[in-house]
Amino acid sequence: MKKQYVKPGFYEQKLERVMDRLGVESYDFNWDRFGCFVQFEYKGQLYRFEHSVQKAKSNGIELRYGSDAFAQVVLSLEDLARMVERGIYDLQTWVAGMLYLPSVSEVPEVPSFFRFLGFDQIPKDLAEVKERYKTLVKQMHPDTGGTQDNFISLQKAMEKAMEYFKMGGDQD
Q1: How far apart are CA 124 and CA 103, in angstroms?
Q2: How far is CA 25 from CA 20, 43, 55, 111, 136, in A?
Q3: How far is the C-alpha of 132 from the C-alpha of 130, rounded, in Å?
Q4: pLDDT tens digits for range 18-48
Q5: pLDDT tens digits, residue range 51-100?
Q6: Which of 130, 131, 165, 172 has the fewest Cβ atoms within 10 Å of its own Cβ atom?
Q7: For the chain, first and last CA: distance in Å?
Q8: What is the dihedral of CA 146, 148, 151, 155, to 10 degrees?
Q9: What values do phi and psi take at 37, rounded to 5?
Q10: Is the distance from CB of 50 to CB of 36 less than 8 angstroms?
Q11: Half-sphere exposure of 148 (CA within 13 A, CB side)
Q12: Sheet containing 45-52, strands listed edge to edge, beginning at the edge strand earlier in sequence
């Protein structure tokens, strides 16, 4: 029997509440067709949770979409928040193994507008950005369940990305 998850927007809102409960002010997330990540700063350290359809399958769990993996990560973070709130463990104790240390290739700072568009590295060209933008528009548009604020932020991020490549960011 397969677990049926609700729409990803539900888990995006739940993630916001969970991060608030944990006192996390800075976090980022993304999900796509095959997987997801949630990363956040907690007490000055960067942590990252990643999950994918493939990783679940290798553990005998059948997921259909990356949004299902995202739901599982959010629900797991919610469980951690409950333990922290009950005084069982401090969050740092639980997430110490997920401390995220960027590889040397990630050292150049990825501009926040690219992170908002779901990139953890600077994309290779504008075509890649446009493809991601089209997907996000469908998710964030107010007519499809998104919020006006997120949609405006998405548009601004796209404008900045276009400006980045216009100024020569895509030159080798």
Answers
A1: 18
A2: 7, 10, 28, 18, 23
A3: 5
A4: 999 988 888 999 999 899 999 888 777 778 8
A5: 999 999 998 888 888 999 999 999 999 998 998 888 887 777 766 655 55
A6: 172
A7: 49
A8: 170
A9: -150, 155
A10: yes
A11: 0
A12: 27-31, 35-42, 45-52
**Rounded-to-integer distance, Cα 44 and Cα 54, Å:** 31
Q: Quote the CA–CA distance of 76 and 157 in Å, as a whole number.
A: 29
Q: Which residue's entry shows tokens 């996390």?
A: 24
Report the residue count for the chain: 172
Q: What are 49's two structure tokens?
A: 């949770």
DSSP 16-50: HHHHHHHT---EEEEE-SSEEEEEEEETTEEEEEE
Alpha-carbon span 111 to 165, nearest angstrom:
13
Write the single-letter amino acid at 143. Answer: D
Question: Per the confidence metrics, is the pTM higher than 0.70?
Answer: no
Placement of tokens 């639980």 in the chain? 94
CA distance 61 to 2: 9
- Amino acid at the residue 2: K
| Percentage of the chain lying above the pLDDT 70 cut | 87
